[in-house]
Fold each of these.
Amino acid sequence: MQNVTLEVEGMTCGHCVNSVEGALKNIGAKGQVELATKTVKVQFDENKLTLETIKETIEEQGYDVV
Amino acid sequence: MQNVTLEVEGMTCGHCVNSVEGALKNIGAKGQVELATKTVKVQFDENKLTLETIKETIEEQGYDVV
């Protein structure tokens, strides 16, 4: 398992939290959004997912990974 | 038809727009959220709905009508 913390712009409310965490869950990763720090902590299996896929998944929800 | 513009706190993103406009649509009103001005323009049939119901519907979505 790999843990990364990503800085993500545009997450403002509980719906955004659900969108990002839900999308990560759908691809088999575990995400934890913290609105105050504009971060997403992601835990994923590096044998199944790449960091690139994680980033794309978040961006597909309409947010910018910086 | 009656038109009112309500000031609403807490709407921050497109999901919030969808929540508020969707909830109003569900009760038969027409809402238009403007995030920049924190307002919701609502058009409704005063023979079928009251302003109190409109406000409650918005607040049930988690926002404060001020």
Amino acid sequence: MFSGLSAFPLTPMNAAGPDDVTFVRLIENLAEANVDSIGALGSTGSYAYLNRAERARIARLAVQHAGPVPVMVGIGATSTREVLHLAEDAQQAGAKALLLAPVSYQPLNSEEVYELYRNVSHELSVPLCVYDNPRTTRFEFSDELHARIARLPGVASIKIPGVPADPQAAKERVERLRKQIPSHVSIGISGDPLAATGLNAGCELWYSVLGGLFPRTALALTRAALAGDSEQAEQLSRELTPLWEMFHQHGSARVVAAAAELLGHVEAPCLPAPLQALNNTERTTLAALLDKLALSR
Amino acid sequence: MFSGLSAFPLTPMNAAGPDDVTFVRLIENLAEANVDSIGALGSTGSYAYLNRAERARIARLAVQHAGPVPVMVGIGATSTREVLHLAEDAQQAGAKALLLAPVSYQPLNSEEVYELYRNVSHELSVPLCVYDNPRTTRFEFSDELHARIARLPGVASIKIPGVPADPQAAKERVERLRKQIPSHVSIGISGDPLAATGLNAGCELWYSVLGGLFPRTALALTRAALAGDSEQAEQLSRELTPLWEMFHQHGSARVVAAAAELLGHVEAPCLPAPLQALNNTERTTLAALLDKLALSR
């Protein structure tokens, strides 16, 4: 399951908590689009804002409505104890893989992060994806630490937070990491604005925010890149430049949440407070952009 | 209650969760030392690593064993929903004040943080302390935002993350903030290494990590400063320089946790995994230092 397009849907919220019905519709759309995997309860899926019972329920709904598409579930939390509980819940829900970021309150050091992955990896019966996202965890993985963690049992993929924009530098970056980790561990690109660059540079999959809402647009880009048509992949990405700029400015989750609200796929507000999607001026810009781009669900 | 020494105890952990018996002993020591207030479930008290039921229980234990000393309880969480639940629990436990940091996963913007405080402040029946701690929340308050939030109903104090080391610059910093907030809102210094400098610069209280374990040492420094003996306060702080250096290097919670373990006040390991107190080499250094400093509980 660690190749192609891994689509990360929102977990839409309402006043009472996660909006199950709307979440199921997002999952069904991903299953119909035939994405290669679904990443439920990723950052875009607001995992860090839900309690354990809600996360277990959302994990079950994702698996139940994904059809044959394998579901990976985010199990990040500040404490190792809670991560282990969440791993158990997600596996019981039928998750085919788990996604773990070193979520922090007190800034973590490398030894703490290694011990977190070591303790968790020994308790799992499904593969683990290492989620490297310094923007939300404020932890910077060194390649040396990636190499140590990638050798732990069950580690199957690393979700990297981006690559250099220059294609040659991106290739060197991916090759440098590739050399240090076992060959069975895939490298996936996240940070949608550089997804084409990452795939063209040798990443095996795209962990995609855009793909959670617009799977067919994200699939076209992914398939062009993985078929070796790097020009076509770059061209498809370039067409989305104004959207990527909004991702940079506001964070991808806020932009995709506002897009889902504008297009009527979720009720507004769909993000968990205190997070806010875009303000009115920004929404007007985004609405015009969505009209023009005609992204494909 | 927002003056003098506010002491922040550890919440010692064991394999099952918070170690109630040991926590109660720490609280009783603070009550006997007659600190001006107790900050239960602060960063040092690992609030971000406990679930709602554990936090409610620890809040109750703190209030029950603090005697006449007023207890403030930390209610920070990533979601506003959870913060409101925690506020309710803490007030039912008998907290005399609440402490709220803008805890984040997705980085927050100023409008989101303002709305968080606005929504929460309207639901409270006890005073609120604004907890400004960019090291753990990764959110930087502007003075303008402090001014807006300080005008919300019930806001009674701001816990600032430090002051410049230079006494004159520290004074200017505190005066600049003071001018922008209502006079009934106190300013408290945190970041123990600059506590004396902050108190001498006009902060009304010290939100103290050291004071959670060694209240009498922290009280001596606080009382000297608040009595106007700035030289004596600076001198007492200077004597602790090697300890402050360890705070800077490892984070104050890791150092105080290791000190509590070394002195037998808590069982080891007392921090919630994945957090680790100091390694063996660092512990040897700390043990020698504790011998030399003979801090007063």
